[in-house]
Amino acid sequence: MDKHLNMALFSRTPKASASDLEALRAELEQLRSELTKRTNELSMITAATNGLDQRLVVIDARLTNMTSELSNQLHELGSEMQVLAEQQSDPDVCDRTRPTTYKPNTYCQRASSI
Questions:
Q1: Looking at the domain assignment, is residue 11 inside a domain?
Q2: How many domains does the chain have?
Q3: How many Å apart are CA 56 and CA 50, to the nearest integer?
Q4: Residue 79 is part of which domain span?
């Protein structure tokens, strides 16, 4: 039994053969190739995503500017409508509410022609 125990302690696993090493090399090369392929695909996706991000930033800026401009124009329109409504109820309002940017009496003429 002693002899059997000694043999088990010193038994070694068989060394890899040349064909085993070649199979491992082939598998490693295949894995490297797959990694390179996926890295290239990821680079293309990243480039496309970055391009879309830049376009979205431009669109967002344009939309923000348009929204601000539209808000300003609606405010101006509301002010002009208020002046017109006041003119309907009191003809003397035209002289008191005429904006200073208009020439004298042109604002009242413009409002009455509408």
A1: no
A2: 1
A3: 10
A4: 29-113
pTM: 0.44
Which candidate, 86, 101, 39, places its Cα nearest to that of 111?
86
Crossing angle for the helix pair 106-113 and 18-89, to the nearest 10 degrees: 100
Is the four-CA dihedral 39, 43, 48, 53 of positive or negative sign? positive
What averages of pLDDT result for each successive group of 10 residues across the chain (114 residues)? 56 79 95 97 94 94 97 95 88 55 52 51
- Cβ count near 84 (within 10 Å): 16
The candidate with the shortest Cα–Cα distance to 82, out of 44, 28, 31, 74, is: 74
User: Does residue 49 sit within a domain?
Assistant: yes
Domain contains 45: yes
